[in-house]
Amino acid sequence: YNRVLEWILDPEEDHGAGHAPLLEVAKGLRFNELAKDVKGKLAVRVDHNRAIPEAQGKRRPDIVIRTDRCALLIENKVLADESGEGQYEESLGDLKRIGKDQDRAYLLSRETREKPPNWDGAHTHAEFAEWMQKVSENDEVSRWGRLSCLLVANQFHDPKGHRAHALRKASRLTDPDQGF
Predict the structure, then answer these.
(1) Contact status, residue 19 vs residue 138, Cβ threshold 8 Å
(2) Where are any strands of DSSP class E within the chain?
(3) Which of 3, 31, 108, 147 shows its CA 20 to 30 Å from the CA of 155?
(4) CA dist 59 to 52, 82, 84, 94, Å?
(5) CA–CA gap between residue 62 and residue 74 (Å, rounded)
(6) Are the beta carbons of 34 and 102 closer than 8 angstroms?
(7) 80 Cβ partners below 8 Å, 6+ apart?
(8) Cβ distance 174 to 147 under 8 Å?
């Protein structure tokens, strides 16, 4: 899940949706400063847990997204609860060490959970799937980008892997004579 999140939220990756997934997430989180940076197509850096130089503890935040002004930390919980006592506090400390004017920390999980203390919020995978669904319906996004977002939405909405419906729906995004 973390690799998929990192991939779809990085505008430089080959998913074909550009900045649209990250913009939709920023809007969904009501992180207006980040949304403004993304709309302005400012440089975005997306790091996963092994590449966050500011992280100091044994555990690392799952994903950190940053612009010149903003930093967004996403801790994604698929099956596990907190990875040991103090994980959320440690991750929040890592976020503060990045030193951006605007920073936010959010928990993303399969089921509804309370936000960790001093964090900005908690959202479910189903909410994330809805944000990706919106991108998949955006005609300004390339067919390949819409398909990528649709498949990601399906994975987060239906983690048991019932992808047949998503593939049928995705097939309507393609024109057999034109490909993607």
Answers:
(1) no
(2) 45-48, 63-66, 70-77, 102-109, 121-124
(3) 31
(4) 11, 11, 9, 10
(5) 6
(6) yes
(7) none
(8) yes
| Stretch 61-79: mean pLDDT | 90
Contacts with 8 (C-beta within 8 Å, 6 or more apart), sequence order: 15, 17, 21, 132, 148, 149, 152
Question: How many Å apart are CA 48 and CA 29, to the nearest integer?
Answer: 19
Provide the pLDDT for residue 169: 56
Q: What is the number of helices (H) and of strands (E) in the chain?
A: 7, 5
Q: Three-class SS of residue 29?
A: coil
- For 107, the 3-state DSSP assignment is strand
Contact 2/62 with Cβ under 8 angstroms? yes
- For residues 81 and 110, what is the distance between their CA atoms, to the nearest angstrom? 11
R_g of the chain, CA atoms, integer Å? 16
One-letter amino acid of 148:
S
